Amino acid sequence: MELTQLEYFLKVAQMEHLTKAAEALSITQPALSHAISKLEVELGVDLFERVGRNLRINRYGTLFAKRVEKILQEVERGKNEIEEYTNPDSGVIHLSYLNILGVDLIPRLIREYQLANPKINFELTQGDKGAILEQVEQGYADIMITSERPVSETFAWLPMLSLPLYVVVSIDHPFAGKEVISLEEIAGEPFVGLKHNCSLRDSLLTRVHHMNFTLASTYDAEDLPTVAGFVAAGLGVSVLPLTAGLKLEGLQWIRIQDEGWKWEVGVHVKKDRFLSPATQKFISFIETKYINVS
């Protein structure tokens, strides 16, 4: 039994007329009649009642048509899915990213890419570093944009941005008049930190440990915007990147004089993962826009 036989049968079942069905299929009437007869022989039953050139589908044909319609629908879905993965200009890119990046970077990146590639669609997932990593590990996302270099050798890292980190205080804080500050100056200050599963938290703890002092964590927030809100309310100081989602009123951003205080953003790509042409093209776009010009 061939797929074309099923397509021919379904068209005849819908039109109940050999000549019209043959014209719709762009084949000759004898060829169509032969294909239907061959299918009936294979099934061992007649599927139609012949009335001159007209055909009337019988109960066996009706039962079979319901199944064939579903089969052909699934085949069409499969063809569309293959198109998604083989056409770099009209595919779907499955991308996961950190929550904070959804305020500014990701919307700008997608908008710029879709202006040049209007038929591309994105399936997006956002969350903390653990949630988005799980999306990639389980195959729901092909790439992720995050602020922590991979700890596993199964991932490649493509750096995008390196933004300076700032000490952030409320406008009423004694440090608010400073333009530059050393991290050691905030030792002992009430510190608004981050809960587990945040890459910036891990980076801060590592850095201050190497500088031989500790941060007096008073509050641990779930995300960076919450940290900024707590600081603006005068509940402590913190260290944050200056991004669009954190520019709240009531904050003073102070440049850190110690070297190396940067917030990196980049792409994680699983090395052994098959990437669709659409995804590969998007990665090449990121490399051209951010990496090759840096």
From TrEMBL:
Cellular component terms (Gene Ontology): cytosol
HTH lysR-type domain ranges (all copies): 1-58
InterPro entries xref list: HTH-type_LysR_regulators, LysR_HTH_N, LysR_subst-bd, WH-like_DNA-bd_sf, WH_DNA-bd_sf
Secretion signal span: none
Cross-referenced Pfam families: HTH_1, LysR_substrate
A single GO molecular function term of this UniProt record: DNA binding
Entry keywords, A to Z: DNA-binding, Transcription, Transcription regulation
Keyword Transcription: yes
Keyword field contains DNA-binding: yes
Family of the protein in this entry: Belongs to the LysR transcriptional regulatory family.
Protein name, per record: LysR family transcriptional regulator
Gene source species: Paenibacillus oryzisoli
